[in-house]
Design brief:
Layout: H1 2-21, H2 25-53, H3 55-74, H4 79-107, H5 114-142, H6 145-149, H7 152-164, H8 179-198, H9 205-222, H10 230-233, H11 236-266, H12 271-277, H13 279-321, H14 325-353, H15 359-387, H16 392-403, H17 427-436
Helix pairs in contact: 1-2, 1-5, 2-3, 2-4, 2-8, 2-15, 3-4, 3-7, 4-15, 5-13, 5-14, 8-9, 8-15, 11-13, 11-14, 11-15, 11-16, 13-14, 13-16, 15-16
């Protein structure tokens, strides 16, 4: 919630920050771009650090650093300090975000992960919805520095609590950290984010991202201790879930950007009325989180995600042709319900399919998808709006979501109840061991999970 709130309130405060610090538009944009580049480049490596040294430790370091950087921004004398401290916030944000999923994976057995992930998603939705309102109120009454003071107390509180909580010691692995792989991946992701932010212009970072990405793949195939374990990147379910997250988050953020111009330029609505009409999106996003846990248990990830992607595409199409308040509210509600369900269900697949010892890397990959997707959607919507009508991105993003539906076939289906345990020592029990031991996931929770279980 702290990270989500920080990002949304900053958007509202940027015009005031620019005037107070006499900054240029490009400098103010770098307060967001610098953060995004830093966090995207380090998420996966930060997840690996959590797997190796403990998720509570990395979470505590990230939280404490995030709070200190927030205090520094509130006291910054000029725009240069703000940009530098926002980059520092990105580094600490990269440490704490994968650790949240890693801690959930370590604290709950895989079959009980649905509800905690749903609660986490609902919290993010509440923070994202409250951010613009809270940021606007604080900026109006106290100035832009007040929004960064908002982060200090919760960041320091949760950081100290994480340090005071004992964590089970991790046995030494004897496997070195893949520092070359971490560097190559960081350069590739950071340059990719920079390229997307600078679209439709052509940046030097685009070819660098391609070269670094190719070098990373080549290095990972040859090294004995890869940064991303083959069991994660080689899993069709994890790959499909990450692809769905990128597509859905791109469609959401690209569609919202287009809606801003449709509502205010085409329909002539005020910013306040536009925000009120889009309120059903936030409400349904939060409400979809607990409902997603129920759908996952009853229908499985494959059906749940496919249905949610269909709802998301329908919402975008509805917004592309809506002009009245009822139709607009209905479209926003469909988008919120679809995206909220996709986020919970696909995140559950990524974290659930990863072994406990690689939960941090899985969390880093999930967070990377959730950072790259919005940038890709905003960049695509910007280019499309420059070529045609403001509503065209809504239609094309809806078709992109629909085109991703076949990917859902790689997701796991509905769970089946485990067969009853056979008496120990019986011949049947002995013959069954060969089959049930294959594909069993073992970790701190003792109940084995078989191949047919989600």
């Amino acid at each position: 919630m702290v990270v989500a709130l920080d990002g949304t309130v900053l958007t509202v405060t940027q015009p005031t920050l620019r005037r107070d610090l006499h900054a240029t538009f490009t400098q103010v944009q770098w307060t967001s771009t610098g953060y995004l580049v830093a966090v995207a480049g380090l998420l996966v490596f930060a997840g690996r650090l959590g797997d190796r040294y403990g998720h509570r430790r990395t979470f505590a370091l990230g939280m404490l650093g995030f709070g200190v950087a927030s205090a520094g921004i509130a006291l910054a004398p000029d725009i240069g300090w703000v940009i530098a401290l926002r980059i520092a916030q990105g580094v600490f944000g990269a440490l704490l975000q994968p650790a949240t999923l890693g801690m959930l994976r370590a604290a709950y057995p895989p079959e009980r992960l649905r509800t905690p992930i749903a609660v986490r998603t609902a919290c993010i939705g509440v923070a994202a919805a409250a951010g613009p309102v809270l940021g606007g109120a604080l900026t109006t009454q106290f100035g832009w520095r007040a929004v960064f003071l908002l982060n200090i107390v919760p960041a320091l509180l949760f950081g100290v609590l994480a340090l005071r909580t004992r964590e089970r010691p991790r046995p030494p692995t004897g496997v070195p950290l893949d520092l070359p792989g971490a560097l190559l991946l960081a350069v590739a992701l950071a340059c990719l984010v920079h390229s997307l932010v600078t679209l439709p212009g052509v940046a030097w970072s685009a070819p660098v991202a391609l070269l670094a990405g190719a070098a990373f793949v080549r290095h990972e195939r040859r090294t004995r201790s890869p940064l991303v374990p083959p069991g994660i990147v080689g899993s069709p379910a994890v790959g499909a879930a990450l692809g769905v997250l990128v597509t859905a988050s791109a469609a959401l953020h690209g569609g919202l950007l287009a809606c801003v111009y449709v509502l205010q330029d085409d329909l002539g609505l005020t910013p306040l009325r536009s925000a009120l009409l889009s309120l059903p999106l936030a409400v349904l996003l939060v409400a979809a989180a607990p409902a997603s846990a129920v759908l996952l248990r009853r229908s499985g990830a494959r059906v749940t995600v496919a249905g949610a992607m269909t709802v998301l595409a329908a919402g975008l199409l509805a917004l592309s042709g809506a002009s009245g308040p009822v139709a607009l509210c209905a479209g926003f509600a469909l988008v919120g319900a679809g995206f909220g369900t996709v986020m919970v269900a696909a995140t559950h697949v990524v974290v659930r399919q990863a072994p406990a010892e690689s939960a941090g890397v899985a969390g880093g990959l999930q967070q990377t998808a959730m950072n790259v997707g919005p940038l890709l959607g905003v960049a695509s919507a910007t280019v499309l709006m420059g070529l045609g009508a403001a509503r065209s991105p809504l239609v094309l993003l809806a078709f992109a979501v629909a085109a991703a539906l076949p990917v859902c076939r790689a997701l796991p289906g509905r769970s089946r109840p485990a067969p009853p345990a056979l008496p120990t020592g019986s011949a049947a029990a002995g013959s069954d061991a060969t089959h049930t031991d294959h594909g069993v996931e073992r970790g701190p929770h003792t109940r084995p999970l078989r191949d047919h279980e989600v």
